[in-house]
User: Which sequence fits this backbone?
DNA sequence: AGCATCACCTGGCTGC
DNA sequence: TGCAGCCAGGTGATGC
């Protein structure tokens, strides 16, 4: 999401929206399509912000266009719309005053666009308040991480991916963070030693920063691409995610895919404790 | 209140 | 080879 935000900053910030087409029936669901279109049309995009996995495009009249890609959403910036065919599952197109388009493609239709005026002093929508601190924006020092995990009896991975606890960590990055910290993802939050919390704090920052430097992770069966349609390259650095059976780079034992509630986690049961 | 599970979807992959 | 069915994962609703 940070890679997408950086792309938005380079391409659509400073542009004015000249028109909006909403063709999908699910992408805009917090308000009517008509309302989104009328709130957005004519507005200039002043800034591209992000909290966790939520994007916020700040508009010139203090409204905000919030976008969440969920599982399969993709934002594409098309500079010459006439030359680029509309991809299947294109649900929203925003036309901009330089002739370019911001297109939203989302096969599974979980993704969402909405425009609100209920913004806080920092310019972000009030609904973002329920999100925990964003490590890339605000850092996550050991004391803060410990405070965020305090009182939780659930498993570490469940808390790390709970956006109210910490914002921005998804399934694959949670696995990578736990591996790097050498802590099992199914450890209880209230059972972590100070040194383990320090390692988790450092690992969170290291994994997220490296992932952004590599412009994200593009998986076999997912469709993450940046605004230009380019794949990320962090998947080549994954130590455990989707690497079941391959030797752990730290201890050589095979990486495991373990059942974990209704989901799965990849980890090294030999060197994560 | 807090934790677990399910629903929402489609496409790619697995296994018969 | 064909195809039915499983699985992927983020969030919000529902259940316990």
Assistant:
């Amino acid at each position: 999401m940070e890679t997408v935000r950086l792309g938005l900053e380079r391409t659509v910030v400073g542009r004015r929206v000249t028109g909006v087409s909403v063709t999908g029936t699910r992408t805009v669901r917090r308000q009517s399509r008509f309302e989104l279109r009328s709130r957005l049309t004519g507005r200039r995009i002043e800034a591209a912000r992000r909290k966790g996995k939520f994007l916020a495009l700040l508009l010139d009249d203090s409204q905000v266009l919030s976008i969440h890609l969920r599982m399969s959403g993709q934002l594409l910036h098309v500079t010459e719309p006439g030359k680029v065919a509309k991809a299947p599952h294109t649900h929203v197109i925003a036309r901009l005053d330089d002739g370019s388009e911001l297109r939203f493609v989302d096969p599974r239709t979980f993704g969402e666009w909405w425009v609100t005026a209920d913004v806080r002093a920092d310019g972000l929508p009030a609904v973002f308040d329920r999100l925990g601190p964003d490590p890339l924006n605000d850092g996550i020092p050991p004391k803060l991480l410990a405070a965020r995990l305090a009182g939780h009896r659930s498993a570490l991975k469940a808390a790390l991916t709970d956006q109210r606890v910490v914002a921005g960590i998804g399934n694959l990055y949670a696995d990578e963070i736990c591996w790097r910290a050498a802590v099992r993802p199914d450890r209880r939050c209230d059972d972590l030693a100070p040194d383990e919390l320090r390692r988790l704090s450092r690992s969170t920052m290291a994994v997220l920063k490296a992932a952004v430097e590599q412009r994200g992770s593009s998986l076999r069966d997912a469709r993450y691409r940046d605004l230009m349609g380019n794949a990320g390259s962090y998947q080549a650095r994954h130590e455990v995610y989707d690497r079941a059976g391959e030797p752990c780079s730290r201890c050589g034992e095979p990486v495991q895919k373990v059942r974990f509630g209704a989901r799965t986690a990849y980890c090294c049961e030999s060197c994560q404790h």
Q: What stands out?
A: Helices of chain A lie at 2-11, 33-40, 135-138, 142-149, 156-160, 171-181, 194-213. The CA atoms of residues 182 and 272 of chain A lie 4 Å apart. Chain A has a mean pLDDT of 93.
